[in-house]
Automatic annotation (TrEMBL), chain A:
UniProt lineage: Bacteria, Pseudomonadati, Pseudomonadota, Alphaproteobacteria, Rhodobacterales
Pfam family, any one: ABC_tran
CDD domains linked to this entry: ABC_FeS_Assembly
Gene3D superfamilies hit by this protein: P-loop containing nucleotide triphosphate hydrolases
Family label: Belongs to the ABC transporter superfamily. Ycf16 family.
Organism: Roseinatronobacter thiooxidans
Full protein name: Fe-S cluster assembly ATP-binding protein
Keywords: ATP-binding, Nucleotide-binding
Domain of life: Bacteria
SMART domains: AAA
PROSITE patterns noted in UniProt: ABC_TRANSPORTER_1 (PS00211), ABC_TRANSPORTER_2 (PS50893)
GO molecular function terms attached to this record: ATP binding; ATP hydrolysis activity
Location of the ABC transporter domain: 2-249
Automatic annotation (TrEMBL), chain B:
Record-stated family: Belongs to the iron-sulfur cluster assembly SufBD family.
All copies of domain SUF system FeS cluster assembly SufBD N-terminal, residue ranges: 30-163
Pfam families (alphabetical): SUFBD_core, SufBD_N
UniProt source species: Roseinatronobacter thiooxidans
InterPro entries in the record: Fe-S_cluster_assembly_SufBD, SUF_FeS_clus_asmbl_SufBD_core, SUF_FeS_clus_asmbl_SufBD_sf, SufBD_N
Stretches assigned to the SUF system FeS cluster assembly SufBD core domain: 181-403
Name of protein: Fe-S cluster assembly protein SufD
Any GO BP annotation: iron-sulfur cluster assembly
Length: 253, 432
């Protein structure tokens, strides 16, 4: 599904700041991979570079989605190709209604894929059902995108967007941070409901707790722009117990 | 710096030169009196210059120059006029001249409508105490010679007296067919106590125009005013909106401005009775040779009134936007609630926004706030939309409309707001 090879990225404005330094990983269809790693190790940068945010220069390496070169595409083309990023910090957009936003996005992607646009009625029906599962009330759908939403509401709104867009490759950047225990369960249920053989997940998190709910197939440790260790769910438990120091030392050696 | 006396002499001289070979139009006693008085004001004040305090950002010369007025007509490529889908009574002006054939009969329950040219011939008319009176009163503390020039020489316009709650809006449609028309329009609207109406204006008016609308809203009356100054690029003009509001009266005025080489809109609002409210809003989109100036002066002359000024401008390609907004709170106007916001979204480095917000407060128990900002499209918001699959152009249009939303929200009836929003969307889509 997603294949990243030897990815190197630096800041566009300051080529001295090299953030990704030879990152490789491969996510097969239907798999859930988790990425853990210290603050500033490059997790969000990876998600931005994959989804096409301006401001970074890829100096080496490649990233493909189902064999198609992601790095050559515009952000919106990557989305239409099936890539989704749940933002670590969802953006507030005053003046744009959440519902308008969702419908514009869904229909833009359908159009890009040569599918017919959803009618207002059809759309409303689907959105209401999915919002209900995530306990997002009608009022939140009417309000401007993320404006005045609590941290947890913003994260649930990200999952709602994911559920509506039905992407193939979902990257979740710290979707668990800022969530209370019940909300975390809700979000995890939302993610699990979407798990199937044709859809993959890359879950960025600092906490093992999320991985109790969304059980990963593979866990990667990212440090200073590279994957320093890859293992099964037990690797997350190890991080939870011992932190990153040992793993980093091991990688240095 | 030129000494004041010399500057004044020049202004007066310019007025004399302009008026030298113009005679006042013929008319009944009441209007002749108003025209004479207005002409005297112009002679006395002189013409505006860039050295006047409220003309610093906008050069008024093109609005009064004696030279040939000329500008190409705009090909709208068959796009229907704004408000086309709305049931209304239509009053059509072509190059600033009333077109009876194209207009609906001036009959509507709850309102009396009459052409200025006809009323001017009568000896007695309900508008006799109003025509030119708000213009005259508003000459202090800021001189407005263009308005008085209009009061003196305008022969076209409508006089609207709202006595009830007419079911349909009154729609003034300004078509432009000549490349050289220099038009003056003077409208008077009187909303009687407790009455309520909606007045729409749309169209380019003329190659050069000088428009005045005097509005008097009696106690408890309400006027909705929605204006779309769009289309033709090659035209210049000035529009004055004067309004006096009685006790508990309400005014909501919204203007959309698109295109036009130089458009100056003055709104001079006088809250004259307790508990009134005045909302004045504007949404502007400008590209290229576009200079647009909103100058607002709101006087709180009575207690417990509320006023809002919401002005948003989206500018690109060398367009210039100006906002000058003042809230003046008289000593008796306790418990005033005044709000003013002016914001611009600059789509490239060539666009320019000039703002001059002012507060002048003589009462001690008031709540007044104002703010002015200038910014660009937010990269984070743009990326967020694109990451959800929204193409860049669509995403930008969405963000621009979101920026304008606070101004459009000032329109009470969403049918009008939706119509204007669609026009704005198309304006951006045409530009990509
Ligand atoms: N636009 C930028 N400007 C300056 N520095 C940046 C920028 N983007 C990333 N960085 C730097 O690159 C490094 C990696 O940042 P990134 O946000 O990817 O880390 P992260 O692993 O997601 O951290 P966290 O766990 O705190 O979310 C940090 O040192 C960060 O300061
Ligand atoms: Mg991060």
């Amino acid at each position: 599904m997603l294949e990243i090879k030897n990815l190197h990225a630096e800041l566009e404005d300051d080529s001295e700041v090299k953030i990704l330094k030879g990152l490789s990983l491969k996510v097969n269809p239907g798999e859930v991979h988790a990425i853990m790693g210290p603050n500033g190790s490059g997790k969000s940068t990876l998600s931005y570079v994959l989804s096409g945010r301006d401001g970074y220069t890829v100096t080496d390496g490649s990233a493909t989605l189902e064999g198609v070169d992601l790095l050559e595409m515009e952000a919106e083309e990557r989305a239409a190709a099936g890539l989704f990023l749940a933002f670590q910090y969802p953006v507030e957009i005053p003046g744009v209604g959440n519902m308008t936003f969702l419908r514009t996005a869904v229909n833009a992607q359908r159009k890009a894929r040569g599918q017919e646009e959803l009618s207002a009625g059809e759309f409303l029906k689907v959105v209401r059902a999915k919002a209900k599962d995530l306990q997002i009330d009608a009022d939140m759908l009417k309000r401007p995108v993320n404006v005045g939403f609590s941290g947890g509401e913003k994260k649930r709104n990200e999952i709602l967007q994911m559920a509506m867009l039905e992407p193939k490759m979902c990257i979740l950047d710290e979707t668990d941070s800022g969530l209370d225990v019940d909300a975390m369960k809700l979000v995890a249920d939302g993610v699990n409901a979407l798990r199937d053989a044709g859809r993959s997940f890359l879950v960025i998190t600092h906490y093992q707790r999320l991985l109790d709910h969304i059980v990963p197939d593979v866990v990667h440790i990212l440090s200073e722009g590279r994957i320093i260790k890859t293992g099964g769910p037990e690797l997350a438990l190890e991080v939870e117990r011992n932190g990153y120091a040992d793993l980093m030392a091991e990688a240095q050696a | 710096m030129m000494p004041r006396a010399k500057l004044k002499a020049q202004k007066v001289e310019a007025a004399q030169a302009l008026l030298a070979d113009r005679t006042l139009p013929e008319g009944g006693a009441w209007i002749t009196k108003a025209r004479n008085a207005a002409q005297a004001r112009v002679r006395d004040m002189g013409l505006p210059t860039k050295r006047d305090e409220y003309w610093r950002y906008t050069d008024p010369r093109r609005l009064t120059d004696a030279g040939v007025v000329a500008g190409a007509l705009h090909d709208t490529k068959g796009e229907p006029l704004v408000f086309d889908q709305i049931d209304r009574i239509k009053l059509v002006f072509v190059d600033g001249v009333f077109d009876e054939q194209a207009s609906d009969p001036l009959v509507l329950d709850g309102v009396e409508i009459c052409q200025l040219s006809q009323a001017a011939r009568t000896d007695l008319h309900w508008a006799r105490d109003l025509y030119g009176s708000l213009d005259a009163r508003a000459q202090s503390p800021v001189e407005r010679p263009l308005a008085s020039l209009n009061t003196a020489y305008a022969t076209e316009g409508v006089l609207i007296r709202v006595t009830g709650k007419p079911q349909k809006p009154i729609s003034l449609i300004y078509l432009r067919k000549s490349e050289t028309a220099d038009a003056m329009l003077h409208h008077v609207i009187r909303v009687e106590a407790g009455a309520e109406a909606t007045v729409l204006e749309n169209g380019p008016i003329a190659t050069r125009f000088n428009q005045v609308m005097e509005v008097d809203i009696a106690d408890g009356g309400t006027l909705h005013h929605i204006r779309a100054q769009g289309r033709d690029h090659e035209r210049v003009g000035s529009a004055h909106l004067f309004a006096r509001l009685g006790e508990g009266a309400h005014l909501k005025s919204f203007t959309l401005t698109a295109n036009g080489a130089l458009i100056r809109n003055d709104s001079i609002i006088w809250l004259d009775g307790a508990g009134g409210s005045a909302h004045v809003a504007g949404a502007t989109v400008g590209d290229g040779a576009f200079h647009h100036d909103d100058t607002v002066f709101i006087t709180h002359g009575a207690p417990r009134c509320e006023s809002r000024q919401v002005f948003k401008k989206v500018l690109r390609g060398g367009a210039v936007g100006v906002f000058q907004g003042k809230i003046l709170v008289d000593q008796i106007a306790q418990l005033t609630d005044g709000y003013q916001i002016s914001q611009s979204l600059l789509l490239d480095e060539n666009a320019q926004f000039l703002a001059k917000p002012e507060l002048e407060i003589y009462a001690d128990d008031v709540k007044c706030s104002h703010g002015s900002t200038s910014g660009e499209i937010d990269d984070n918001q743009l990326f967020y939309l694109r990451a959800r699959g929204v193409p860049e152009d669509t995403a930008k249009t969405l963000l621009v409309l979101a920026f304008l939303a606070e101004a459009l929200d000032e329109i009470a009836d969403s049918a009008f707001a939706d119509d204007l929003r669609t026009r704005l969307e198309a304006w951006f889509e045409r530009r990509g």
